[in-house]
User: Fold this.
Amino acid sequence: MQTQQRQKIPILQNQVVVFSKNYLPVARINLKRAIVLLVTGQAETLEFSSTQQWEVRSPNLVLQISDHIRLTSGNPERHWKVPPVNRREVFRRDNHTCQYCGSTKRLTLDHVIPRSKGGTHTWDNVVTACEKCNSTKSDRLLHETGMVLRSKPKPPIHPAIAFAEQFWKEQQPVEL
Assistant:
């Protein structure tokens, strides 16, 4: 009896991939949230040949839920804006690593083109730098110091696109 209970409880923790109305993978959610989306008509199940299915029963409803669902409507007012440049987000983007030497200690922010020379406080001009590199670079341009960036600074991408890229990387190629 206890073995059966152990198997039934975790079923609601299983993961379901949510696709947008246009079939863009948007997020991974647990089965409980997927049930809510399906019952309220906000989503429909997608059946691929390799999908897993779960049967969920209630007193008046039996649902067959696959591990992929698609939203049936989109909210046009829901737009994502690039977040403002701030210390926490720049550190996250740069993986808490100095973009000049690779150090992970005593990190600060550095403007690639110094503000005194017309540089802006934007995603493509601010990087993570350790105190030593920031002090060495000081108020100069990269070519004046001989320093090189490890990666080109850029604004963060939409979370749904980041998820989609990760999702497709994880998928195994299908052999025909």
